[in-house]
């Protein structure tokens, strides 16, 4: 579609205020209107006439001729009143149609304004800028109450939806068990050793690092110094009856502890005297 055609589609239909432009548009569009009337009569095979009364002219413009137009008018007047008024649109009906559209638009704007005013009142109450509603008109007060109830119902419904299981997607709510992947087998650990000497002559010996201690004798499970099991050997030697009556005294226990590797005195610090 050309730019001119798109401009016609967006054109607002209303009366031209300038008389000169209105007269020029009538002369330009009247031939187009008569052409469309002829196409309608030929395509639909219906009687069509066109009568236009241009301003500042004594005679009307009649199409296709006065005789055909008179026959069409006579045929139209012979119809019943219900049939004549079914699709009739005169100036009064056109004005009523425009008025109804404007009223509907006005009602829509008023409704939007009322909604905005209600939101402002509720926002002021929540923010602490308003602590009472008795200064509002009765109808506006009722509208505010209805809006508050509507919001509370929406919040309650949303909370119930969140607490219920219906909030989950449909693809999650399935009765089939989820597939569990088998654990992967550990990868073989391969290390490459590069010896610094001939391994055929001297075997490679791996020794643990020396243990760190604080200077006291460490109790071990085997080897010297003696570990804690030596204490049980000594106690068993004292307890020959087996009933605990011949256990050593406190002084004897203090003498046994150093032998068992318990409470041994700290080792002297090495000196590096020159």
From TrEMBL:
GO terms for biological process: positive regulation of transcription by RNA polymerase II. It is found in: Nucleus. Residues 6-53 form the MADS-box domain. Keywords: DNA-binding, Nucleus, Transcription, Transcription regulation. GO terms for cellular component: nucleus. GO terms for molecular function: cis-regulatory region sequence-specific DNA binding; DNA-binding transcription factor activity, RNA polymerase II-specific; protein dimerization activity. Pfam families: SRF-TF (PF00319). It comes from the Eukaryota. Its main location: nucleus. This is MADS-box domain-containing protein. It comes from Lolium multiflorum (Italian ryegrass).
């Amino acid at each position: 579609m050309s730019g001119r055609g798109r401009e016609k589609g967006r054109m607002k239909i209303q009366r031209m205020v300038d008389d000169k432009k209105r007269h020029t548009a009538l002369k330009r569009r009247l031939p187009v209107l008569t052409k469309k009337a002829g196409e309608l009569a030929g395509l639909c095979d219906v009687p069509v006439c066109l009568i236009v009364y241009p301003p500042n002219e004594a005679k009307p413009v009649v199409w296709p001729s006065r005789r055909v137009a008179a026959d069409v008018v006579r045929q139209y007047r012979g119809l019943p009143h219900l049939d004549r008024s079914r699709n009739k649109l005169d100036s009064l009906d056109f004005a009523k149609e425009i008025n109804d559209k404007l009223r509907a638009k006005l009602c829509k704007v008023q409704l939007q304004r009322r909604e905005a005013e209600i939101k402002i009142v509720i926002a002021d109450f929540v923010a602490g800028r308003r602590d009472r509603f008795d200064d509002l008109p009765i109808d506006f007060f009722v509208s505010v109450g209805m809006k508050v109830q509507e919001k509370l119902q929406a919040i309650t419904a949303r909370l119930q939806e969140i607490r219920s299981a219906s909030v989950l997607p449909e693809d999650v709510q399935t009765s089939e068990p989820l597939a569990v992947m088998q654990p992967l087998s550990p990868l073989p650990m391969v290390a490459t050793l590069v010896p610094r000497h001939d391994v055929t002559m001297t075997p490679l010996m791996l020794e643990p690092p020396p243990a760190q201690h604080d200077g006291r004798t460490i109790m071990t499970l085997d080897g010297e110094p003696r570990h804690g099991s030596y204490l049980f050997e000594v106690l068993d030697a004292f307890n020959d009856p087996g009933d605990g009556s011949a256990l050593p005294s406190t002084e004897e226990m203090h003498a046994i502890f150093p032998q068992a590797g318990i409470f041994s005195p700290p080792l002297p610090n090495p000196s590096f005297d020159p």
